[in-house]
Amino acid sequence: MYTEEYEDYEYEAEVYEPTGDPRLDAENERYPGYGSAPQYAQYTMPDVIKKFIIYFREMVNSGKLYEIQNVYENTVNPTLWNIHSVLNVLYSLVDKSNINQQLEAYAKGEDPDTVAGEFGRRPLYKMLGYFSLVGLLRLHSLLGDFYQAVKVLENMELNKKTLYSRVPACQISTYYYVGFAYLMMRRYADAIRTFSHILLYVQRTKPLYQAKTYQNDQACRFSGRKVNQTFISILYTQINKQTEKMYVLLSVSLVLHPQRIDESLQAILREKPHAERIMRMQKGELQEFENAFAFASPKFLSPVPPPVDAPPADHRREPFQQLAKVFMDEVQQQLTLPTIRSYLRLYTTMPVAKMAAFLEMPETDFRTHLLCFKHKMKNVVWTKGTSGLDGELQSGSEVDFYIDGGMIHIADTKVARRYESEQTEQDLAREVQRADVVCLVYAVDDNHSLQQITERWLPLLQSLRPTSKEEGGSQSGEVVSAVPIILVGNKSDLLEQGNMESVLPIMNHYAEIETCVECSARTLRNISEMFYYAQKAVLHPTAPLYIAEDRELTEKCKKALRRIFAICDRDGDGSLSDTELNAFQQRCFGTSLQNRALEDVRNVVRRHTNDGVGSNGLTLSGFLFLHRLFIQRGRHETTWTVLRKFGYDDNLNLSRDYLHPPCVRFTVFV
């Protein structure tokens, strides 16, 4: 038993051959045994209704219907097939069974038999009426009446397990047509929700469709006859094909209306060919949108036949061409919206003329695109209720704006909602404790964002600082160094001069701030420098070595450097001679210093200290001063290289390998 539409007519011909007779009574003769077993009605009725619509569609698309109409044009034949008679049959079944009244009673928790009427109480009529609603969804979609297609299901709750969900292929097909109708009505959020729901269902139940024994058992049970393996293969192929169509439609919806979806679906869309298709559509390639629509849309029908005397050569493709034009007109109107959205997310205020110049368009045209952006981002979104047409008008953009004179004022409308829904305090704490470095970004033209750095983010990061005992058995309980922080001032292209003066007090107050860099995401100025400083903060952190507010080395750093000085002072005279300095230089950096370079080092120490250079060479005071100078000038890597060459780890503890080097075993043969 097949409960899925066969998009390829050659598949359909294997199990269902149109007779060529367009009269309704001729088709009725093909189903003499349906309904004889009422217990199977819920499984056979979807097939009856589906074949009824497919038969009419294929007769129209193949041209046979119009050829036969020419024969009957001079006769009166009230049973001749046409769209009105097909709709009349389906609506008559709905009305005869009182199925809408029964569904309303179900929703209210009442007994549906009280409103079912004489025919509605019978399982056969009840199932015919119920699946006629699904058939009307399909038929109205094929005719391009998408509003009516969704409206006929207003009493059927798609998000709950109902009769149609007992026939998986019928369920998949129902969601496909509902999602496609939402897409064509520009309700992208609802289309994404519909496609995501059924694609997740297909993911969970896919092994079930692959089980051939299951398919045989179900087919025999529902139809009362044996179904061969070819039929099972066709069913599985068609489910896969319709699933692939929904992935394409989901891709289109996400390009036109970006939003987060389930991670398992997102992972599939990252694979080829979906990722390549999405990338081309995001670049604005109209041909890719056309190809996607041609592949994923159903086979549309025209509600009226072509002229009998001179039918157009492409009359069979005319419905598709008209609906494709409607779709492509909508796509063309939205081509500039992703670029506008990206600029609006970068700025809080900006002259209209300047942003128009960025987009290389006249200011008047840009204002038109801004209004288009505001209009297109407003969508009716289903929130609750039975009817799929119910919903609230919501903005699909994370930014809102208004134009005051020649300025655009932009506000982020979803900061709080995005933080609460996407990342809890516990999630943030876990991420910070796992992080090697944190980049705090603020806008150089927005004092409020800089205020948030000091009032919210820096105190929050300090409260999340991990603590642990020192390695090596120390019981001091010393606090481990905080995660290094890089302050990043964005939008520097909006200011003629830097704004570092307002940041320096913050850097002096918080020792964990490694540095501050101003950059521009638009012009890419200093972006690579930001990542360089972040990498440097991880490999060569400042906090274990230096106290910024005191402008002095930490006690632990001084202790380590004193030990290194003592090791290098081989003669024990309290100073490093040129020979000892070169030995130190060779051990740490693999090279020696020339006499002039040694003299330059001593001159720098003499200018800044009174006791840094003695009669025999560089003293301990001068050695400590040199490392403090390296750190103050941003050359942390020099001091860290020295410390690591003498066995110190990132916490300035002697590493276990240095204290207990592995023994080398060797054998002596005598």
TrEMBL record:
Organism for this UniProt entry: Daphnia hispanica
Stored InterPro entries: EF-hand-dom_pair, EF_Hand_1_Ca_BS, EF_hand_assoc_2, EF_hand_dom, eIF3l, P-loop_NTPase, Small_GTPase
Compartment(s) of residence: Mitochondrion outer membrane
UniProt keywords, alphabetically: Calcium, Cytoplasm, GTP-binding, Hydrolase, Initiation factor, Membrane, Metal-binding, Mitochondrion, Mitochondrion outer membrane, Nucleotide-binding, Protein biosynthesis, Repeat, Transmembrane, Transmembrane helix
Family, similarity comment: Belongs to the mitochondrial Rho GTPase family.
Membrane-protein topology: Single-pass type IV membrane protein
One Gene Ontology MF term: calcium ion binding
Superkingdom of the source species: Eukaryota
Gene: EOG090X0665
Name of the molecule in the record: EOG090X0665
Transmembrane segments annotated in the record for this chain: none
GO CC terms of this entry: eukaryotic translation initiation factor 3 complex; mitochondrial outer membrane
Pfam family, one: Paf67
Location of the EF-hand domain: 556-591
SMART domains on file: RHO
